[in-house]
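Late entry, written up from scratch paper. The run itself happened at the end of the previous shift, but nothing got recorded in the book at the time, so transcribing now.
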Amino acid sequence: MRIAALAMTLALGAAAPAFAQTNDVTPLVTAEWLKTNAGGENVVVLDIRDEIEGTDLGETPYIENAVVAPYASAGWRTEQEGVPGQLPPLDQITALIGSLGIDNDDHVVIVPWGTDSSEFGGATRVYWTFKHLGHDAVSILDGGWRQYDAAGLPRVAEAATPEAAEFTAEINDDILATTEEVQAALDAGVTLVDGRPAEQYEGKSKSPVVRTEGTIPGAVNIEHSKLYSAEYATFARPETVEALSTAVGLAKDQENIAFCNTGHWASIAWFGLSEVLGNKQTAMYDGSMAEWTVDESRPVENKSGT
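Output as recorded:
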């Protein structure tokens, strides 16, 4: 899966402008950063790639010293009250993180495949989960495995076996919006950002987990696909995110709530606005349209006219 065209991207990524930072931990790190720091004390590489065994990577499909917890099957999301893809109960999610050998002193670097924006959304969703749990020392490898492999970084035959650790959460509710808070935001005129494809936003199609077509009234649309380059395996730079935000009338420091169908694509929009652009007035609606449309009395706007 090496991609020769990524060589130039790697060089550009290494010289990319600094992103919004917390204690010198950047939301995105490059393969060169990982090459330098992966062996450091309290740096945990978290491989969330799904179906690694089913690929054509041969006998060395794993990242050296990485712990593996596939996004779709490890327990990062669960069904809650009939709504799929939700944040698991606190005891479950902290137990998962601790079982991976991650404690509160670790800098976690998340690695997805980097295939496209939707797949990369697994990384932004797990990143958001760590942030919600109060763990700020978390980053994503920009471009994921595609950048890792293009840089020729070490590959091994077996996944690492972590030693269980104690992970304690200090919940940050500022980045999680409940249904009640979304309703209050709607009533107050707070900007709601729909991260789904335009066809779903406009009401021309819908996810099977959502009751009806349409969006939350007054929402603006920043499609998740515009925040990640599938061609070059890189997340959008701050100036691109700012242009997308400005185009829908959202100021750089304006309060907003990102949503989608189940809080997956929404995490991409949240990551772009909050972490790359630095708008700390951004929250994410975990339940999104799947939860919003459960109650038929909640308003839904169909822009397609159908």
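Confidence is low (pLDDT under 50) at residues 1-23.
(Scratch paper discarded after transcription.)
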